[in-house]
């Protein structure tokens, strides 16, 4: 949690500096970078809230705590980025035919500060022990976000060295385009998570085969694998067990959990063990799997 608090404090401070620097220097690129960096702060807040709140005391109405707040924050970030990028592009288009007087020195100084802070945040979040799903989600915002301050630094250097004022508008437009591209990817991922789609890194067929290869397991069916939050996947399934193995149910359940946890990195595992398929034989999917299993 300390790393998230430090990162959030740094993001708020540098965002204020970017906005102030953009207004004083007349730099549209700095304002664009501030909008891009704001999304990192929108991810850090809910991540900090969710850290350590998997099962908060007395939260009967929120049995998963504030885990999904991180995903909703990513959705809000995407919408904010779209709106910001649209405004930046319109403003950049309007400035194309106008002469601009950007303070390149101030612009470069603030941009360099923003880049340094962003790199510090990346190092802080990479410290050992930062394995919580909230940190994993925030890390997804840091690498794309570093492209913004790099672009502003290059634009500031261009203005200082060559006096080409249009570099500010070009930098702002580039940041807006980068934001739109990264936002589309972010939005697609968020929608996939909210629809409880299967995580891309998990091969469900291989998972089923691995568990069905355990001695005593006849069939695995009604399988659902989804992402609660990035870095925190869940599994729910029914497992048909040989009736002669009734006495080994607890040990078998432990082996299934070990496979899911250690081989597929699935944290939340809910498995119902059954000794009869009578209630499932009418399901064509179950009948097909039983046929393949012989």
Would you give the CATH topology of the largest domain?
Alpha-lytic protease prodomain-like
Please work out how many helical segments DSSP would assign. Answer: 10
DSSP strand count: 3
Given this structure, which CATH class of the largest domain is correct? Mainly Alpha
Shape: elongated
Structural class: mainly alpha
Overall tally of domains = 2
* Helix content bin: 55-70%
Order of helices and strands: HHHHHHHHEEHEH
Based on the coordinates given, report the CATH architecture of the largest domain.
Answer: Up-down Bundle
Based on CA atoms alone, the radius of gyration comes out at 25 Å
Report the portion of residues in β strands: 5-15%
Unreliable stretches (pLDDT < 50, length at least 5) are: 52-58, 128-135
Strand order of the largest sheet: 1-2-3
Sum up the structure in keywords.
mainly alpha; elongated; Alpha-Beta Plaits; 294 residues; three-stranded mixed β-sheet
Explain what you see.
The chain is mainly alpha-helical. It has 2 domains: 2-194, Alpha-lytic protease prodomain-like, CATH 1.20.1510; 204-293, Alpha-Beta Plaits (2-Layer Sandwich), CATH 3.30.70.1350. It has 10 helices and 3 strands, in the order H-H-H-H-H-H-H-H-E-E-H-E-H. It has helices spanning 2-25, 28-50, 67-95, 104-125, 133-145, 147-162, 166-194, 204-212, 249-264, 284-293, and strands at 217-229, 232-241, 266-274. It has a 3-stranded mixed sheet with strand order 1-2-3. The chain is elongated and about 85 Å long. The relative contact order is 0.12.
């Amino acid at each position: 949690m300390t790393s998230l608090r430090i990162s959030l404090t740094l993001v708020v401070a540098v965002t204020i500096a970017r906005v102030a620097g953009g207004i004083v220097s007349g730099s549209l690129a700095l304002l664009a970078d501030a909008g891009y960096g704001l999304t990192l702060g929108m991810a850090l807040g809910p991540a900090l809230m969710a850290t350590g709140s998997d099962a908060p005391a007395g939260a009967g109405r929120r049995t998963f705590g504030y885990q999904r707040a991180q995903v909703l924050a990513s959705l809000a970030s995407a919408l904010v980025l779209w709106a910001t990028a649209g405004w930046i592009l319109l403003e950049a288009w309007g400035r194309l035919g106008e002469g601009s007087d950007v303070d390149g020195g101030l612009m470069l100084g603030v941009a360099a500060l923003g880049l340094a802070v962003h790199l510090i945040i990346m190092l802080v979040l990479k410290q050992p022990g930062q394995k919580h799903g909230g940190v994993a989600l925030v890390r997804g915002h840091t690498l794309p976000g570093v492209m913004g301050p790099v672009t502003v630094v290059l634009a500031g250097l261009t203005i200082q060295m060559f006096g080409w004022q249009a570099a500010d508008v070009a930098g702002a437009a580039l940041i807006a385009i980068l934001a739109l591209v990264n936002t589309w990817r972010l939005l697609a991922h968020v929608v996939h998570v909210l629809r409880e789609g299967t995580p891309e890194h998990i091969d469900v067929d291989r998972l089923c085969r691995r568990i069905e290869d355990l001695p005593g397991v006849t069939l695995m069916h009604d399988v659902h694998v989804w992402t609660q939050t990035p870095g925190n996947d869940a599994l729910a399934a029914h497992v048909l067990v040989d009736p002669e193995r009734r006495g080994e149910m607890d040990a078998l359940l432990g082996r299934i959990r070990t496979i899911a946890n250690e081989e597929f990195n699935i944290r939340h595992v809910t498995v119902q063990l059954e000794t009869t398929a009578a209630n499932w034989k009418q399901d064509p999917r179950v009948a097909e799997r039983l046929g393949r299993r012989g």
